[in-house]
Specification:
Cytochrome Bc1 Complex, Chain D, domain 2; 4 helices; 116 residues; mainly alpha; globular
Length: 116
């Protein structure tokens, strides 16, 4: 009987941990969506429900199209969104949006949530 109780506790803890992680990820995705709609929408179609069209014409790649790329990972996205891609050799490259580590993680979680 004690073994059964211990197995139940272990299974319950594993399920609770998975639920908490999923809820945390959903919160990151929501915050990333909100942030992208504010910070990234000047150049990208960051969200289907963003208030305005991008100012950049033609716009930078949409977040949906970025999410569908085969070579995209959380690490590669994180590096990309925290690095400046604009300079004298590439004056129209993406500027560094100066996101905090937490904000970068939220935007990455949001973009990855758009995968189909």
């Amino acid at each position: 009987m004690q073994k059964v109780s211990m197995c139940f506790v272990v299974i319950f803890m594993a399920i609770s941990s998975a639920w908490a992680q999923e809820a945390g990820n959903a919160d990151e995705v929501r915050k990333g969506h909100e942030l992208a709609a504010i910070v990234c929408s000047n150049c990208h179609v960051a969200a289907a429900d963003q208030r305005y069209n991008p100012l950049l014409n033609p716009p930078a790649p949409s977040f949906v199209s970025i999410a569908q790329r085969n070579n995209i990972s959380a690490a590669s996205l994180r590096t990309f969104v925290t690095t400046t891609h604009r300079g004298l050799d590439n004056p129209s490259g993406m500027p560094n949006p100066y996101l905090s580590d937490e904000q970068a993680q939220q935007v990455v979680a949001y973009i990855l949530s758009l995968r189909k």
